[in-house]
Design a protein that fits this description.
hydrolase; protein-N-terminal-alanine acetyltransferase activity; hydrolase activity; 360 residues; alpha+beta; NUDIX_hydrolase_dom; 2 domains; binds coenzyme A; transferase; eight-stranded mixed beta sheet; six-stranded mixed beta sheet; single chain
């Protein structure tokens, strides 16, 4: 399928230049020059049966790059640096306005930044309007699928301003091994990779994130705790929930209690920060537990429950709580009770409900 059957002007494949690096159409004579430069690294990541391609196959591949350009399905460029053919980059039609990128640099030329320079130049051409003085493809998005074990290739994508967007699990085969691939993408409207905004966006897309939970410790005049009987799990739990992106843990507690119990409350202090280790298929998380300002013993009468989440509310004494809550919550409530009994009014730092042991 053409990149854009309506507007892409027919014509010769252009030559793109960035300093000493030239991206130009492949020629028959490049086939012989580059064939011996193929190595096991390329064979592995492109899943080629042979490390060095057969001469006729390689020539036929060069011919095919010309046919693909003519039919508008793919543009492949040899990378020429200081007069040598050092690698190859390409963009193929994925869907209207979207191109899929691929790249390779031959072993003797790696580690000089040639791949990221080439991909950045290719992407600039992809995003250049079709009616510009030096026309491009006028794409709105480019993307690449990279094996996460291929660190150099991930770096090439990130240095070229592509952002990590997600993992495609079990998406590819290398030989008979099943592998994940990481999908990375860049929009024409994204900031350039060399800018502060571009650098921040690139890093932000790939740094780990962790689930954050906010919960409230609500007590009545008898010192009993408010526990929610939930519609989706067996154990009862403190009111609260998962903190939304851009939301603070304390605001989350106030919001969740408003959404699920239809009550307006305020939080007074942070009682504990509790790291929860991975559990029953859930990834690890950080739980912030806040004391909720006195609410009055009639809370359970005033609350209107969001029934798809909360079945019932219960006032439970601290001694009875462990038989209703999950083990990690029982440990945390015990730690909170012990701190209170000892007159400790600071914020507890807990791991899996227990005070962190020094040196652990
Ligand atoms: C992936 C591949 C293209 C990377 O090629 P490359 O030319 O070495 O990659 P880069 O241009 O990004 O340069 C990488 C290194 O050069 C270094 N470098 C040196 N000078 C540099 C410069 N002026 N600018 C940028 N990087 C420079 C970088 O620090 C970088 O090191 P790092 O990756 O350890 O952080 C190459 O390893 C390859 O062809 N692999 C096999 C094929 C393949 O995997 N293709 C991708 C399939 S999705």
């Amino acid at each position: 399928m053409p990149f854009d059957a309506v507007t892409l002007p027919p014509g010769e494949q252009p030559t793109l230049v960035d300093g000493e690096l030239v991206l130009r159409p492949w020629r028959a004579e490049d086939a012989d020059a580059t064939r011996p430069l193929h190595d096991a690294v390329m064979a592995r990541w492109f899943d080629s049966p042979a490390v060095v391609p057969d001469r006729d196959d390689h020539l036929a591949w060069v011919e095919r790059t010309h046919a693909e350009w003519r039919e508008g399905s793919k543009a492949t460029f040899v990378l020429q640096w200081r007069g040598e053919a050092v690698g190859s980059v390409d963009v193929r039609h994925r869907s209207p306005g979207v191109g899929a990128l691929s790249w390779a640099v031959f072993a003797p030329y790696r580690g000089r930044g040639l791949s990221s320079t080439a991909v950045r130049r290719l992407v600039r051409w992809c995003f250049t309007a079709v009616d510009a003085p030096e026309p491009g493809l006028g794409l709105r998005r480019v993307e690449a699928e990279v094996n996460p074990l291929n660190r150099s290739s991930m770096n090439t994508a990130l240095r070229s301003g592509l952002r990590r967007e997600g993992v495609l699990r079990g998406n590819t085969l290398l030989g008979d091994e099943v592998h994940d691939t990481v999908l990375l993408g860049r929009l024409a409207t994204d900031p350039e990779p060399g800018t502060r905004e571009g650098f921040t966006a690139m890093l932000d897309s790939q740094l780990p994130t962790k689930r954050v939970i906010g919960q409230g410790l609500v007590r009545n005049g008898a010192g009993e705790l408010l526990l929610c009987e939930l519609a989706y799990k067996r154990e009862w739990d403190l009111p609260g929930g998962v903190v939304d992106p851009g939301e603070s843990p304390a605001t989350c507690v106030v919001r969740e209690i408003r959404e699920e119990l239809a009550l307006d409350v305020s939080v007074t202090r942070l009682l504990a920060v509790n790291w929860l280790k991975p559990w029953l298929g859930w990834g690890d998380a950080v739980l912030f537990v806040f004391e909720v300002a006195p609410v009055g013993d009639d809370l359970t009468d005033r609350a209107t429950l969001l029934e798809r989440e909360v079945r019932a509310l219960h006032w439970v004494s601290p001694t009875d709580a462990p038989e209703h809550v999950a083990p990690y919550n029982a440990r945390m409530l015990a730690s909170l009770g012990a701190a209170e009994a000892a007159g400790d009014t600071g914020t507890l730092v807990l791991e899996d409900g227990l005070p962190r042991r020094e040196g652990a």
